[in-house]
Each structure stands twice: as structure tokens, then as C-alpha cells.
Predict the structure.
Amino acid sequence: MPLWYVYFLKSLVGDFLYVGSTSDLKYRLLQHNKGEVQSTKSFRPLEINAYIAVKTEKRARELERYFKTGSGKAILKKRILTDEAPIGA
């Protein structure tokens, strides 16, 4: 059973963060950087800032939806996507 990923892309040319989900992380990043994804096309190149692996597509989609909300974005910025966040905080 393949894992599913919730991934967080950061633009290398601007202040842009994208949240998505996929079962093939490498291929999906390639699609983003080739310009095949409309919502990220203008922000290329992109790199993976972080990702979360889960067992099911359903859970990945739920987490993706959550991280696109205001409170989800706040958790991302405060706890996941910062190098200054202390471990266990």
C-alpha cells in the first residue's frame, strides 16, 4: 500500500507557499516545476519545504484542506515550516 503525502512547496522567486497532496511526491514536484499546475505556474521554480506522509488518500486530503485554512496556515508557519520552532514546543 503506497503512502500519501501532504506537501508544502515554497517558491524560490517570491513569497508563495502551496499546499497539496499526492501519492507520488517526486513526480508531482516535477509537474509543478514544468508549469503543468495552473496555481503554481507563475511561481516557479518551487522546492519542497516539508511533507507529511500518511497511509490513506482520505487522510491526506483532510490534512491538505486543514492546512489551507487560517488556523492550518498558522500552525504551518509556527510549528512546521520554521527552523526556529523548538522541538516539542
